[in-house]
Amino acid sequence: MKRVFITLVTACALMCALITGLTACGLHEHDFTAEKALDKYKVSDADCLHRAVYYKSCAECGEKGTETFESGGYKHDFGGGVTCVKCSYHKPSDGLEYVRNLGITGVKSKGACTDTDIYIADTYDGQPVTDIFEYAFSGCSSITDVTIPNSVTSIDRYAFNGCDLMTSIAIPESVTWIGWNAFSGCTSLTEITIPSGVWNIREQTFSGCTSLTGVTLPDGLATIEARAFSGCSSLSDVNIPDDVTVLQYAFADCSALTSIKFPNGTTYIAEGTFSGCAALTDVTIPKSVRKIGSDAFAHCVSLSDVIIPDSVEYIGSEAFLDCDALTIYCEAKEQPSGWSSRWNASHCRVVWGYTDGEDSD
Ligand SMILES: [Zn+2]
Ligand SMILES: [Zn+2]
Questions:
Q1: Which ligand is nearest to the CA of 79?
Q2: pTM for the full model?
Q3: Of 60, 86, 115, 359, whose CB is crowded by the most CB atoms within 10 A?
Q4: Where are the domains positioned within the chain?
């Protein structure tokens, strides 16, 4: 019994010594908060994808701790050329202006760079370049191509707005945020793929990208905000993933869009979503839809027929304004009380009491 007691006391003493971190001579309590990037604390070297890792150390005596921190930039092997022999990362363009602001490192402007084919650095002043700051390249008419490194997570608002000669831009998978108007008015941009981590296409992000023919949207997308693709007059095909909420005028004036497949679960077709889509001929409104906002299909002059399922409780004013070729087939026997008195302001032909496969007019 006595031996057990002594063992316990010894164990407790050892535990206390460990917990308080007392040194052998008991002079001070270690404070492992110092971040000194010295070789003696190094855990691993930098490479193409990782920065160097070091152990933190005691601020008072320099004793090595167990927590780690990252320091310095990435390290590529250019082997005398312009691209890394290991990861094909291209040497960054000279002259671009980078800043570190509130702990965030990013590109601020084109600076003195004269390149038309821009390569953004993945490191600046020992820190990863994570942002393309707002307006960084806005209105840069000389730029034709931009390569963004995979250190970048955020493309801020208006970052590439009005880069009217930019034909291509590959957005790396590391990007999770694209700010509003980031690519608006990029009239030469032909294709875009949105990385899988982006959950929101913000307002007017691609508005007025008149050469954009294709866009690939990720499955995890939650929202396509107002006017996100408005005026994309070459966009002929878009595949909206399931469960995406599409906000007002998102595809307005997409005058090359011929068909639209609504995502599963759509309950609301927002105001003006497809207004001015002059080539639109094929629209199937799913039976999950309860509301169709005003202006939703206004000026869709090629639309010849559309079926309104009896799930639709509300249609806003002028939803089919100026759809001159349109016959509207309503499953409802008469106009539901929730529909605007001006839902059919242009007096398109309406067939009430429509049932699948037969015209009961
Ligand atoms: Zn110490
Ligand atoms: Zn590399």
A1: 2
A2: 0.85
A3: 115
A4: 2-71
